[in-house]
Amino acid sequence: MSVRLYVGNLSFDATADDLREIFGQCGEVEDAIIVTRPGGGRPRGFGFVTMAEEAAGQEAIRQLDGQEVSGRQLVVNVAKERQESDRSGDSE
After folding, report:
1. pLDDT band at residue 85, thresholds of 50, 70 and 90?
2. Would you state the pLDDT for residue 20?
3. Alpha-carbon distance 67 to 63, whole Å?
4. Please, what sign has the CA dihedral across residues 1, 63, 20, 49?
5. Higher pLDDT residue, 59 or 81?
6. SS3 label, residue 44
7. Do the bridges between strand 75-78 and strand 3-8 make them parallel or antiparallel, or are there none, so unpaired?
8. Beta bridge partners of 31
9. DSSP run (H or E) holding 20
10. According to the model, what pLDDT value does residue 84 have?
11. Which residues contact 46 (CB under 8 A, 6 or more apart)?
12. H or E element: which one contains 56?
């Protein structure tokens, strides 16, 4: 079963290919994205990597969390599911 990882504290020069290369050392990477700002496309300093196997994801966390890449210490953990925000303004 695949696992999606959050990757934070990335260099603003990092690319999805960089993530594929870094995380590929721990196992098969299914997907890698860098999150960008709307409109301008400027990277926001974090992204997501989907590892094909849960064991590979755990190994990536073990090896890469706190690892220095491009002068910055990576933050790597299992991505949390996105919560739907209540935008209606209703209160309980």
Report:
1. low
2. 98
3. 7
4. positive
5. 59
6. strand
7. antiparallel
8. 50
9. helix 16-24
10. 62
11. 6, 7, 8, 9, 10, 34, 35
12. helix 54-64
Read off the pLDDT of residues 25-65 as tens digits, 9 standing for 90 and up: 999 999 999 999 987 788 999 999 999 999 999 999 999 99
Mean pLDDT of 66-78: 96
> Which value, to the nearest 10 degrees, does the dihedral of the CA atoms of residues 50, 56, 58, 60 take?
-80
Question: CA-based angle 84:29:15, to the nearest 5?
Answer: 80
What are the residues facing 29 on neighbouring strands? 51
Tokens of 91: 């209160």
User: In whole angstroms, what is the distance from residue 75 CA to residue 72 CA?
Assistant: 9
**Residue at token pair 């709307």:** 38
The whole model's pTM is what? Answer: 0.85
* Structural domains of the chain in order of their starting residue, each with its CATH number: 3-78 (3.30.70.330)
In 3D space, the residue among 36, 21, 30 whose CA is nearest the CA of residue 54 turns out to be 30
Q: What pLDDT score was predicted for residue 88?
A: 46
